[in-house]
Amino acid sequence: MDGIEYPRWGHLFLGTNQDNVDDMVRKRRHTFGTRNAMAKLNDSDVVCIRERLACGETNRYISGIFSVSEALVSQIKNGRIWKHVA
Fold first, then answer.
1. pTM assigned to the model
2. What is the chain's Cα-based Rg?
């Protein structure tokens, strides 16, 4: 949180919306990766994409293979999404 002590009632605590979002993410109660029903990739696809990027294949070529956007491949490449996949 922001360093301010908020009152607690059992497992509940007072906070802002951002505090709630941060708590949800910290406890991994949000949708990410294959837990998202709209996900077009799975963990093994992401590993394969990273391997192809390491071999020098372009975002455009990889996006065509996996039928996703170049922007999605770029976000995987830059570690903005699918961070939980090693």
1. 0.64
2. 18
13-64 tens-digit pLDDT: 778 888 888 887 788 776 666 666 677 899 999 999 999 999 999 999 999 9
CB 1 within 8 A of CB 15: yes
Helix, strand, coil proportions of the chain in percent (round to 5)? 50, 5, 50
- Pick from 11, 18, 85: nearest CA to 50: 85
Q: Which amino acid is at 45?
A: D
Q: What does 38-74 look like in DSSP terms, one character per residue?
A: T----HHHHHHHHHHHHTT--HHHHHHHHT--HHHHH
> 66 is written with which tokens?
């996996």
Q: What span, in angstroms and rounded, lies between the C-alpha atoms of 53 and 65?
A: 13
